[in-house]
Amino acid sequence: MKGLELGSSLFGKLLKRTRTAIPTGAMFNVGITIILAVVLMAVFAPLISPYDPTRATPDILKPPSSSHLMGTNQIGQDILSRVIYGSRIILMVVLSATIISMAVGIPLGIYSGFIGGRADRTLSMVMDSIYAFPSLILAIAIASVLGPSPLNTAISLAVVYIPTYYRMTRGQTLSLREQLFVEAARSMGAGKLYIMRKHILPNLLPTVLVVFTLSAADAIITEAGLSYLGLSVTPPTPDWGYDLRAGQGYFTTGYWWISFFPGLMITLLALGFALVGEAMGEKISIASK
Amino acid sequence: MSVESLEITYMALGGRIKAVDGISFSLEQGEWMTVVGESGSGKSTLAYAIMRLVPPPGKITGGKIVFDGMNLLELDKEKLRKIRGKEIAMVFQDPMTSLDPLRRVGDQAAELFVEHEGLDMEEAKKRAEEAMKSVRLPQHVLNSYPHQLSGGQRQRVMIAMAMSLRPKLLIADEPTTALDVLVQEGIMELLNSMKEEGTSILLITHDLSLAANWSDRIMVMYAGRLAELGNTEDLVERPLHPYTKGLLDSVPDLWSDKEVKPIEGNPPDMRYPPPGCRFHPRCPMAMEICSKKEPPILSIDKRVVSCWLMAKEGGKA
Amino acid sequence: MGSLARYLVIRALAIIPTILILYTLVFIILRILPGDPILAVLGTKNIPPDQLENLRRMAGLDKPLYIQYFSYLFNFLRGDFGVTITFPSGVPISTYIAQRFPATLELAICGFIVSIVIGLGTGALAAVKKGTKIDGALKLYSILAYVTFIPLLGMVLQYIFGVYLKWLPIAQRIDPGLAPRSITGLYVLDSLLTANWAALRSSVLHLILPSITLGIVLSGAYTRLLRNNMVEVLSSDFIRSYYSRGIRERKINWYALKNAFLPVVTYMGLQFAILLGGMVLTESTFSWPGMGTFIVERLDYRDYTSIQAAIIFFAFIVGLISLIVDAVYALLDPRIRY
């Protein structure tokens, strides 16, 4: 029961703080529209997809037309349908990776920032090293060992982005730790865990949102890179990165639509997250001035 | 130089702030005038305005600044640029951040001569050496980077640069606030020596005793408006405006057992300035009219005061 | 200048733990993760046990873990990166790296230069025109730039400039047979050194599209960073002092740029990691024979030892770049030296 109470009170606090962090303005609106559109596309894929994305037909290499709005690829699959279904994979992988990253990175960051000392220093050094390493290559390393599958891609991505969340929460914790209300709580005898939970966690939310959106944008690109390299899905599963690679050879001979549309979607989805993240970041920095 | 009805407005998030609201005064060649006021009185803004350096979101929204027969506010950018540094020079408050950290001091000093007198770098460097001598700084300063010098040294460099082209007017905005008292004396001496060579000095400070010791005339500002303006000796001995009186009373005197009386209250929030006379909430002699109508600007002998109390004594506007 | 040397030595020592951590991390990933790494990478094909044993020995997996850790590191530092275990098998990996790395380096340098030029140019412009439509447009550009998927941009450029306009080549480093005599491995440099003008022209032409692709995507981050820095610098006290002395605006903007540029240098070290990540995709798109395509090819062949060597190699490079960036920063900022 305690857990439920804690959860709902925390949620209430988070909700209040979120409202102040949501900006208005064109950048945010465009971004959130893009994200919502793709999410809806993923959720309602079976309903809106005109064809079965994995069904090969003899209508190969047809340019965009009224029957195939995005054309067909070299084995006759409808690209629009593949694009629609492809959103599922990328969203699932990126979202699950982000959740794992946050679940590991945030508590570690809070703990590290709060406790300090040797544990903090060692952990920071490790995290900084990972952070400095090229994310795609690290992801390749992990994914290559685990084997190609969307789940393993998610795990690789998760590992790559843990330092991002770690660093952010650690930084915030360090500055929050010095603030008066924490001092007050400590002087009243509150335990460390209590302080971390009740005082530091809720204050992190605005920054977490910004970091989440911006690293989601990055993760989308990295995921696309991994599936482009063949480390994620295997045919015939529709996937934006994989499809782009499959169509690459045909691009310069004039069959541009096979690679173009998946590539466009990758960029668009990442753009959506980036716009939202930037808009929120601006709102927060204005509010703190 | 004369300033007429100068108005400077800041567009802030909460609304418009009239940092300077209708200030007028004149300054003769070779005269030292100090503008005294609390923080927020608008004195620094006034100083920046003369060279049109008011930072956004501030804007000069009214009035004239006549210098050498020209209205500075109407000059085009190129003419203004030629005046800056050569005819009018300025020394700023914080010496620690007033120099480019990536360039040697000598280069920054010599640049003035290259820019304004068309000298080449060789000759400019020689002139820079002379400038350093005149503020009694050793030559190695020229080869140093700003971070290698102390605050006092940096301020002297700034003054040297301000002086080097022999401007007609030197504006000094709290030049010694960030420095310790001993260094302060030296800086004031420097300014005085410039005055003796004919330069007009406009000093901005919150330190009334500093003003009293060095200037010819003092102008007291409060909340963007002129409170009182007059000869230093007269003003200090016979202050007319209650605010001036209050300031004098709040300064400790080393030589007597005078009781120190700070002025009650705080400077107003400039977004919502008090109606009528802006000082009235803190004024021990406030009358009913003070909270209703803005006091007129009266001149009595050589004194200018803006107070209803004086109006009763039949001064002229 | 003694303090500069001392500073660099201290920084160099600080890099060593980072490199070691990365090496350990990669080692853990590649050796300790559950499952037989050879089988995982090779896929579950049926391999006769003695062949499997052979492969394991070639990969050095037959010894206990801690011996593997140190002996591999030791060999690596001596330049022995092991041998390939799948087609073609038994080839010393160092030969590949010696061929491929210069290609990657050349492209990385060019891409880096392009990104700096674009990034600084647009950043400074945005700062000077702060608040105007140009500033807003550039902000949008910078966001769009860094989310663009590299293969997409690469392909579009290839189509426009290679296929449609036929101005530029779209794949490889140089026209076949024109490779200059190898001194540094960097074709542009080598052709200059050997006065081989045909090679110079060809290699430069081949560099253009991939560098621009890489450069555009990287520049996004610089634009924003520089713009924000420069806006701050432009409102700082010493700039106001410059104005008060009547210095020309052009000069003032230049001084502001130099000051604003400094923090960007430290950021560049981080950006290099992103650049290396982008290399893999860029090389793939343009069939550029570098480390990126090397990893991709070896992935296709499931050549475990090559992948391992390449990644550890990257770890060392990242550390080295970090050090170089620190050195450059120290050179540019007099406050650190004196």
From TrEMBL, chain C:
<feature type="transmembrane region" description="Helical">
    <location>
        <begin position="307"/>
        <end position="332"/>
    </location>
</feature>
<feature type="transmembrane region" description="Helical">
    <location>
        <begin position="260"/>
        <end position="281"/>
    </location>
</feature>
<keyword id="KW-0813">Transport</keyword>
<dbReference type="InterPro" id="IPR035906">
    <property type="entry name" value="MetI-like_sf"/>
</dbReference>
<keyword id="KW-0812">Transmembrane</keyword>
<keyword id="KW-1133">Transmembrane helix</keyword>
<feature type="transmembrane region" description="Helical">
    <location>
        <begin position="203"/>
        <end position="222"/>
    </location>
</feature>
<keyword id="KW-1003">Cell membrane</keyword>
<keyword id="KW-0472">Membrane</keyword>
<feature type="transmembrane region" description="Helical">
    <location>
        <begin position="105"/>
        <end position="128"/>
    </location>
</feature>
<dbReference type="GO" id="GO:0055085">
    <property type="term" value="P:transmembrane transport"/>
</dbReference>
<feature type="transmembrane region" description="Helical">
    <location>
        <begin position="140"/>
        <end position="161"/>
    </location>
</feature>
<feature type="transmembrane region" description="Helical">
    <location>
        <begin position="12"/>
        <end position="33"/>
    </location>
</feature>
<dbReference type="GO" id="GO:0005886">
    <property type="term" value="C:plasma membrane"/>
</dbReference>
<dbReference type="Pfam" id="PF00528">
    <property type="entry name" value="BPD_transp_1"/>
</dbReference>
<dbReference type="Pfam" id="PF19300">
    <property type="entry name" value="BPD_transp_1_N"/>
</dbReference>
<dbReference type="InterPro" id="IPR045621">
    <property type="entry name" value="BPD_transp_1_N"/>
</dbReference>
<feature type="domain" description="ABC transmembrane type-1">
    <location>
        <begin position="101"/>
        <end position="329"/>
    </location>
</feature>
<dbReference type="InterPro" id="IPR000515">
    <property type="entry name" value="MetI-like"/>
</dbReference>
<protein>
    <submittedName>
        <fullName>ABC transporter permease</fullName>
    </submittedName>
</protein>
<comment type="similarity">
    <text>Belongs to the binding-protein-dependent transport system permease family.</text>
</comment>
